[in-house]
Amino acid sequence: MAGTIIVDRLESGTSNITIASPIVVSQSIYANTGNLLISANGTLGPVSVANTSIAGKIIQAQIGAGVAGTGPAFHVNRENTPQSFSSGVWTKIQFNHIVYDTANNYDIITNHRFTPTVAGYYIFILVVNFGASGGDPSTSGIGIYINGDVYRYGPVRYFSSGKLGSITATYGAIMNGTSDYVEPFIYSDGASPAITPDTAQAAFEGYMVRSA
Amino acid sequence: MTLIKKIITLYPELETFDFCMGSIRLQDNSDGNGPYIAKWEHPTLARPTQEQLDSVEE
């Protein structure tokens, strides 16, 4: 039946109300439980998504462009004890403290690596303080490895004299969300190089910036 | 004696070689196995064998 019905309150008891041309002008719409569905200004009440294709929640791959998701993020650092390493050898850095690791993807115990569980594009920030390096190195640097092989070297600093303080680098990489892993490495040819434990200057961070 | 010093003892001409970014890369995965030669692509010098490295006196 076509036409317009104007009422102060429209109820159907336990049955649904079906409107062929679904134009509803209302101050608000409530469920039969009394819970608010849509308020007068268009704000949705508490809702849950019931769609079998997304199993009741929106996953990382389904969010729109420009929307920050809940991809993995971590921040680890070196605390309390220096990490000494061999002169002239690219050495994996062993960070020993987790500031945060949202998806439990960073292993600081055994392999000292980040293996993200969500596929996507990641940015990594590595800062290291060479202050404890014994002797005056002529060359010092940092880099990251992916899946056990060199991904990025640098920055690398060459000296005619003196020693390096701290050095910071930023890298970007695509990770597959299953087997890909990233590891921080360091190099110095000082006589007895070491990484100074410093929560601000011996740290490694990583953030997923968009899904694959 | 460190690995790099053993290599330089075997090949004194590598005294000023850039082991950081050059064609020879020494690596330590911090897994307890110590440093090793991860890459050796030197154009003229042959990769030293473990026996040669072990023969270098401390």
Question: What this model shows, in words?
Answer:
The complex is a heterodimer of chains A (212) and B (58). In chain A, a hairpin with a 5-residue loop joins strand 1 and strand 2 (36-38). Chain A contains no helices and 15 strands. Chain A is an all-beta fold and 212 residues long. Helices cover 0% and strands 38% of the residues of chain A. Chain A has strands spanning 29-30, 36-38, 73-77, 83-84, 90-92, 97-101, 106-107, 113-114, 120-129, 139-146, 149-158, 166-175, 182-188, 194-195, 202-211. Chain B is α+β, with helices and mostly antiparallel strands and 58 residues long. Chain B has one domain (3-55). Chain B has two helices and two strands. Chain B has helices at 3-10, 50-55; strands at 24-28, 36-40. Chain B is globular, with a radius of gyration of 11 Å. At the A-B interface, strand 5, strand 10 and strand 11 of A face strand 1 of B. Strand 5 of chain A pairs parallel with strand 1 (24-28) of chain B, so a sheet runs across the interface.
Based on the model shown, name its key terms.
heterodimer, A: 212 residues, mainly beta, Jelly Rolls, five-stranded antiparallel sheet, four-stranded antiparallel sheet, 15 strands, 0% helix, B: 58 residues, alpha+beta, two-stranded antiparallel ribbon, 2 strands, globular
Short description:
With 212 residues, chain A is mainly beta. Chain A is built from no helices and 15 strands.
Helical residue percent band of chain A:
under 10%
Alpha-carbon distance between the two ends of chain A: 51 Å
Oligomer: heterodimer
- Greatest interface and its residue counts? A-B, 21 and 17 residues
> How much of the sequence of chain A is in beta strands?
35-45%
SSE map:
The complex is a heterodimer of chains A (212) and B (58).
Chain A: E1 29-30, E2 36-38, E3 73-77, E4 83-84, E5 90-92, E6 97-101, E7 106-107, E8 113-114, E9 120-129, E10 139-146, E11 149-158, E12 166-175, E13 182-188, E14 194-195, E15 202-211
Antiparallel strand pairs in A: 1-2, 3-6, 3-15, 4-14, 5-13, 7-8, 9-12, 9-15, 10-11, 10-13
Chain B: H1 3-10, E1 24-28, E2 36-40, H2 50-55
